[in-house]
Amino acid sequence: MNLHQYFERSAAQNAAAVAIEQADGATITYGELAALSDRVRDRLVLEGVEAGDRVGLYLRKTIDTVASILGVLKAGAAYVPVDPTAPASRNAYIFDNCRVKAAIVEGRFREWLEAELQQLAGVPALLEVDEAGGGRGLERMLDALDEQKPATPSESREVPMSHLAYILYTSGSTGKPKGVMLTHENATSFVDWCLATFEPRTSDVFSSHAPFHFDLSILDIYTPLSSGAKLVLVPEDVGKEPLGLAALIAEKGITVWYSAPSILTMLTQRGELESHDYSKLRAVLFAGEVFPVVHLRSLHAKWPHPRYFNLYGPTETNVCTYYEVVPPIPEDRTEPYPIGKVCEQLEGIVIDLDDREVEKGSEGELCIKGPNVLTGYWELPEQTSKAFLGEYYHTGDIVIEEDDGNFRFVGRRDRMVKKRGYRVELGEIETALYAHEEIEEAAVVALPDDDAGVMIHAHISSVSGEKISMIKLKKFCSERLPVYMVPDRFAFHESLPKTSTDKIDYQRLKNG
């Protein structure tokens, strides 16, 4: 069964139930969402979208976006969501890189996107939603297009399970984002695990805090919509504002919350949680970075009744291990909780630098195989080949398997870090900095931070030997990188420290 068919089955059984609610109170029922996504499907088919094509999505997080996602899947295509807060040049690169056949774009982004695409291979069919929100913007667009040329109703396409369902672009070490290809089999295997593990009910209200270009969104969207539950969309501005977010969780009656630990830490410290009633909350899921025990303990003191799950996995596997934190959390515990055991439908091994499996209790890299694991990176055969050991995917994470079978996270093998749950390749930031004509050398390091997970420090030497304006540097970076990748701090050097082999000495930079 294809990914969209989970929703179609649910919609047939729960047509009158509310499927999605926005923070502003706008709602859409399962029946209405099914009809709206059908119209998107029919329009895409008329635009020439065929099974196996890619369709870009450049919209803020709204009902319109979810309807567009479902419409793309119903057309037999794969959706490619981009970060609406990222520079248009980055998003244009993504659409050009995977050769989208069409893109659904919000009006506020179209001019800049089109200008960037014209400098690349060309502009695909752009379907413009004037203002996304409540599904109404999407309806206006479809109505206007139908007046020009009506789209003939068609049936949803069922594609082989090996076909792509979506491509999520992550930070790439080469300086360009890379596309992680996930099939219907990958996605439905994960959704099946979510349904079995968290047992969603039609009375549940799930949060959608993660943006749709982020892998946490797969659980957010498909677990509730496969089970007749309600999904509450948390917009980006509210998602980063602790008092507003704390109030929204209570007011909307969220029963299942999912986010990066840094968001929960923010809520604990500045959300005034004691001011609200969270009695409906039954499960708190967190993933994307280590949750410092001191903050987890504080959260549990304020939300003592839900179940807590630590979910782990890169975009390439989605969740591949999980651990339920069983209270109480001892006062003397300082180590983070384990990332847990491998999900039931997957297999994991721990290997050394020579790709040999290590004994339990020894450090090594966690490798995962099974139906969740990506098919590869879009048009990057060498990176795809390097990512696998036979059928096992190299996660790049160093772990130790404890006596009880749970894995304990130790650290990363490469220069990838997580910030507020986002995957950040430090090399991509360096590549962006080197594009600045006044920068001679650039090195980026990440240091631990309890709130954000890490603080990104950029160390720079300039051509002239003079300091570069901090305001200009921040602006330069924000035009080339997503907000979460812009360095938090800049340090200037006459020249960067070197190792004996004349390479930049990252260890000295980390140690100050």
Tell me, what is the CATH class of one domain?
Answer: Alpha Beta
Averaged pLDDT:
95
Q: Just name the CATH architecture of one domain.
A: 3-Layer(aba) Sandwich
Structural class: alpha/beta
Basic shape: globular
Model regions low in confidence, pLDDT < 50 over at least 5 residues: none
Q: Which strands sit side by side, in order, in the main sheet?
A: 11-12-13-14-15
Q: Largest sheet, described in full?
A: 5 strands, mixed
Question: Strand portion, in percent?
Answer: 25-35%
SS elements, strand count: 26
What is this structure, in a nutshell?
By secondary structure, the protein is an alpha/beta fold.
What does this molecule look like?
By secondary structure, this protein is of the alpha/beta class. The radius of gyration is 23 Å and the shape is globular. Helix 10 (about 240-250) packs across helix 11. Among the domains are: about 5-10 and about 25-185, ANL, N-terminal domain (Rossmann fold); about 425-510, ANL, C-terminal domain (GMP Synthetase, Chain A, domain 3, 2-Layer Sandwich). The strands form seven sheets. It has a five-stranded mixed beta sheet, with helices on one face. Strands 16, 17, 19, 20 and 21 form a five-stranded antiparallel beta sheet that branches. The mean pLDDT is about 95.
Q: What brief labels describe this structure?
A:
16 helices, 32% helix, alpha/beta, 512 residues, GMP Synthetase, Chain A, domain 3, single chain, Rossmann fold, five-stranded antiparallel sheet, five-stranded mixed sheet
Task: Note the topology.
Elements: H1 3-13, E1 18-22, E2 27-29, H2 30-46, E3 54-58, H3 63-74, E4 78-81, H4 88-97, E5 102-106, H5 107-118, E6 125-129, H6 136-148, E7 164-170, E8 178-183, H7 184-198, E9 205-208, H8 216-225, E10 230-233, H9 236-239, H10 242-251, E11 256-259, H11 261-270, E12 283-287, H12 293-302, E13 307-312, E14 321-325, E15 341-342, E16 347-351, E17 363-369, E18 376-377, H13 381-386, E19 388-389, E20 392-401, E21 407-412, E22 416-419, E23 422-425, H14 426-434, E24 439-449, E25 453-462, H15 470-478, E26 489-492, H16 506-510
Helix pairs in contact: 1-2, 2-3, 2-6, 4-5, 7-8, 10-11, 11-12
